[in-house]
Amino acid sequence: MTTSSSETSNNVRRGSIACVGLGMTLGSHLTPLARSYIEQADVVFAAVSDSVVEVWLERMHPDVRSLQPYYGDGKPRMKTYQEWVELFMGEVRAGKRVCAVFYGHPGVFAWSPHKVIKVARAEGFEAHMEPGISAEDCLYADLGIDPGRLGCQHFEASQLLFFERRIDPTAYLVLWQVGVVGDWSSKKLQTGSEHRQLLVDLLSNDYPLTHEIIIYRCATLPIDKPQIRRIALHELPHVPLTTAETVILPPAAEMKQNVAMLERLQALEGAEAFT
Ligand SMILES: C[S@@+](CC[C@H](N)C(=O)[O-])C[C@H]1O[C@@H](n2cnc3c(N)ncnc32)[C@H](O)[C@@H]1O
Q1: Which of 70, 100, 156, 261 is the most buried (most CB within 10 A)?
Q2: Is 207 a catalytic residue?
Q3: Nearest residue CA, atom 15 of ligand 1?
């Protein structure tokens, strides 16, 4: 007799974890595979964008546990994320099939799903990440950007302030978590205009202050429309900005040909290949 992959030979079921993405827009982005992980789990944990989404999840599973109460004002987000990992692993070690549900893609700007998968595998449990439609996917569609045309860099906004990173202004630049930019403590739910001014100062090394940038929020409910605001870079500290918005800087300069490399390619392939 064969045993299913989650059962041991003496029929004691081994725990497992699947981290799945719901996509950004309630209902319409859920893949059949993500739904099946949710429905077949023993317990479902939910880190989603809206309590409406939790109510919708409860129609798919009777035991949906919200992860929202683990956040706290003045509590470092990293502490919350570590607690989530322990919570998931507690159920996995107890032999449960755990499904941890995240909005968007569970592996995009999300620490706990990557961490719990590593921990679970190191302890010999089955662990899987099921992708979802992220804010990144939505912005390509809503803003008509093809990352293959001019290139597209993605940065966590604070990382640009904390570390010396190289920005390429000939490509698109996508900045995540601008609403909490500069929060070294990871305790704040929002940072203010002084923090965003530092970001603008840094970006002004590569972009004119009058450069048009985009503040983008994709639809989270099917009745919503994407919100797209275009402002000048210098206005960024002074406009309202939520933590559910992403900032996009279109290219500010043209790509330059790499003449030396083109000459080497010509030597390899013959000049006629370039005419
Ligand atoms: C913790 S990350 C989560 C990203 C998510 N896992 C995904 O796949 O898109 C939070 C950041 O995602 C972006 N974000 C979240 N909701 C968004 C929305 N509705 N529209 C655009 N960007 C959003 C913002 O940059 C925000 O600071």
Answers
A1: 100
A2: no
A3: 244
Q: Are 178 and 191 within 8 A, CB to CB?
A: no
In sequence order, what are the residues at sequence separation of 6 or more whose Cβ sits closer than 8 angstroms to the Cβ of residue 97?
Answer: 6, 13, 15, 16, 18, 40, 41, 42, 43
Q: Tell how far the Cα of 65 is from the centroid of ligand 1, in angstroms.
A: 21
Are residues 4 and 16 in contact, defined by beta-carbon separation less than 8 angstroms?
no
Q: Which atom of ligand 1 is found nearest the CA of 219?
A: 19
pLDDT below 70 — which residues of the chain? 1-13
CA–CA distance from 160 to each of 40, 85, 97 (Å)? 41, 27, 39
Predicted structure pTM score: 0.93
Give the per-residue pLDDT at 5.
46
Q: What is the pLDDT of residue 233?
A: 98
- The answer to whether residues 85 and 116 touch, using CB atoms and an 8 Å cutoff, is yes
